[in-house]
Write a structure and sequence with these properties.
The structure holds two protein chains of two kinds. Chain A is mostly helical. In chain A, about 55% of the residues lie in helices and about 10% in strands. The longest helix of chain A is centred in the C-terminal third of the chain and has 11 residues. The relative contact order of chain A is 0.23. Chain B is mainly alpha-helical. Chain B is elongated, with a radius of gyration of 23 Å. The chains are: A mainly alpha, B mainly alpha. At the A-B interface, helix 4 of A face helix 6 of B.
Chain lengths: ~80, ~220
């Protein structure tokens, strides 16, 4: 798969909303999950192109949510 | 358990500096040595030769066992284990250039190789071994090794043929071997190994692109 193809995904991350709901900062989440703030910021701003299952599991554990709460796929234009 | 590092970044950076320096010196010295030969036209030129009937033993490598040669022409390298060389006066510019051509090719190859290796070493030291262009650089290095090893040794042999032709030592009665000899295997093997490494780096570059943006 070429980088251009990877950039065409329509996955939207709802990490910012979940953080607000849990009254948690990105730094706190980064500490709990064991991922750098930079990487979580990449995820939050929809600049990530892939997520490790281990990262996803840790985020869901920390936010007490399911992957479906974290991500959604925007309708095709 | 994996090692933390095999070579420290500082060492790699130092190596890159040394490689660059060697490349610069070689790229200047090789061609300079060859070109300086052009200014010695008329003087004796030394070229490698091979006898059709080589002495059976090293002990037999005496001037007595060698063919009669024109005045002023000498054969050197009669010591056991060394290559035979013909020294002939009255050289031409082309003969001098060709006789030293291997040094020029080697110097340019080392220089070009260093120019290709330096950014590769720098990117490895920076923790980005699969940075863009490294596979291409290794493939280029493979080409440089094969081409230089192929062309370099041929030039003094061509000079030998030119000298023997000038001395009228060519033809069926010549005591010397006519033709060019290739000793290509080590260079081709090295080039092939470098190409394999280049392919590994190409795949590494692809994997690196794949994990870009991975959280």
């Amino acid at each position: 798969m070429s980088p251009a193809e990877l950039d065409t995904h329509r996955v939207t991350c709802h990490l910012d909303r979940l953080l607000v709901d849990r009254q948690m900062t990105l730094t706190e989440l980064a500490e709990r999950v064991g991922v750098t703030v930079v990487n979580l910021s990449v995820l939050k701003n929809d600049r990530a192109r892939a997520v490790r299952f281990s990262t996803l599991t840790a985020i869901c554990d920390a936010l007490d949510c399911q992957p479906g709460d974290l991500f959604s796929v925007a309708p095709a234009r | 358990m994996t090692r933390s590092t095999y070579v420290k970044p500082g060492t790699i950076r130092g190596l890159g500096l040394v490689v660059g320096l060697i490349g610069l010196v070689a790229a200047l010295a090789g061609p300079t040595y060859a070109i300086s030969g052009a200014f010695q036209a008329g003087a004796a030129v030394v070229v490698p030769v091979e006898l059709i009937e080589p002495p059976v033993t090293d002990a037999a490598r005496t001037s007595a066992s060698l063919p009669a040669l024109p005045d002023g022409v000498r054969i050197a390298g009669l010591t056991p284990g060394s290559e035979l060389e013909l020294s002939a006066p009255g050289s031409t510019v082309l003969e001098q250039l060709l006789s030293r051509g291997d040094a020029a090719v080697l110097g340019l190859a080392v220089g070009l190789g260093a120019w290709l290796l330096r950014p590769l070493l720098a990117s490895v030291a920076a923790g980005r071994p699969f940075g863009a262009g490294n596979a291409r650089r290794l493939a280029g290095l493979a080409s440089v090794v094969v081409v230089a090893a192929g062309i370099g040794p041929l030039l003094p042999q061509i000079a030998s043929l030119a000298v023997l032709d000038r001395l009228d030592l060519v033809g069926p009665d010549s005591p010397f071997v006519m033709g060019l000899t290739f000793a290509f295997t080590p260079a081709v093997l090295t080039g092939l190994l470098l190409l394999v490494l280049a392919e590994a780096f190409r795949q590494g570059e692809r994997l690196s692109a794949d994990v870009e943006g991975l959280v």
